[in-house]
Amino acid sequence: xxxxxxxxxxxxxxxxxxxxxxxxxxxxxxxxxxxxxxxxxxxxxxxxxxxxxxxxxxxxxxxxxxxxxxxxxxxxxxxxxxxxxxxxxxxxxxxxxxxxxxxxxxxxxxxxxxx
Length: 115
What we know:
Blueprint (H helix, E strand, L loop, with lengths): L3 E3 L2 E4 L4 E6 L4 H4 L1 E7 L6 E6 L5 E3 L7 E6 L4 E6 L8 E10 L2 E4 L3 E6 L1
Parallel strand pairs: 2-11
Antiparallel strand pairs: 1-3, 3-8, 4-5, 4-9, 5-6, 7-8, 9-10, 9-11
């Protein structure tokens, strides 16, 4: 099983990007979806999560700007990022978590927000 992240790029502050994380094998129907990010010199932080019941959580710094969603027909999770700020610059990673022993990771996708 692989997770394929895409959608990163360079955007000006105030702009938007949508990240996608495509899986194969009905992963996101049964796994909690998470988006993490890691900026240079920083630890990886959990940005958003969406469990199989539809409950979402966001880190405070992105509340009201980012939206995590899921399309089970495509086995894909999205992270819509609006009103981007330079401090959102990071490599973004998607993951799918069934339990602590079963966590899948995608490759990172770089988001760069210029001021």
